[in-house]
Amino acid sequence: MSSSLATAIRGYVTVRPFGSMVIPVPVQNLVLRNFAAQQNAEFLLSINEHKFDNCFMQLFTAVNSSKKGGEIAMCSSSMLPQTQPALDELINQVIQKDITLHFAFENARAASKNDFAKLLHNRNLSNLIEASRIQVPAVLELIKSNQ
User: Would 79 be classed as within a structural domain?
Assistant: First the structure.
């Protein structure tokens, strides 16, 4: 498909639950297609992650196969690796290749260490708030740590 749009955004979807949500892949693709249209960008076919828990092979493939300055969109930052080593590796590769990751539900993007620090801080805060046995002192401490 030939396009006169300045930017192309590759989608990244998963059949696994993320955050507290389970969203069918076709619905994720609709969200990402709409997101790309709002960004005045061409939407490229989404890469679908494997079903295995803690598997991010397709996300790393999307990053590795993206050109310098590429853009990848997913529904939520909760789709990122949850383990620190895998997350650090992903962030380093994204920064090294000058790629931007977009997160439609958070209306956020991340392309630098500072961007990721803010995004992950907000994700951690959200996770604490959503937890069924929330501890107010832990939330207050997290808020203080970002001031």
Answer: yes
Q: For the segment 2-33, what is each residue's pLDDT rounded down to a tens digit? A: 455 668 999 999 999 998 889 999 999 999 99
Predicted local confidence at residue 15, as pLDDT: 95
Number of domains the chain contains = 1
Q: What secondary structure letter does DSSP report for 142?
A: H
Q: Does residue 63 contact residue 106 with C-beta atoms inside 8 Å?
A: no
Classify residue 55: in a domain, yes or no: yes
Q: How confident is the model at residue 1 (pLDDT cuts 50, 70, 90)?
A: very low
User: Is residue 79 exposed (0-12), middle (13-18) or buried (19+ Cβ within 10 Å)?
Assistant: buried
Q: Which residues contact 112 (CB under 8 A, 6 or more apart)?
A: 95
CATH code of residue 14: 3.40.50.1390
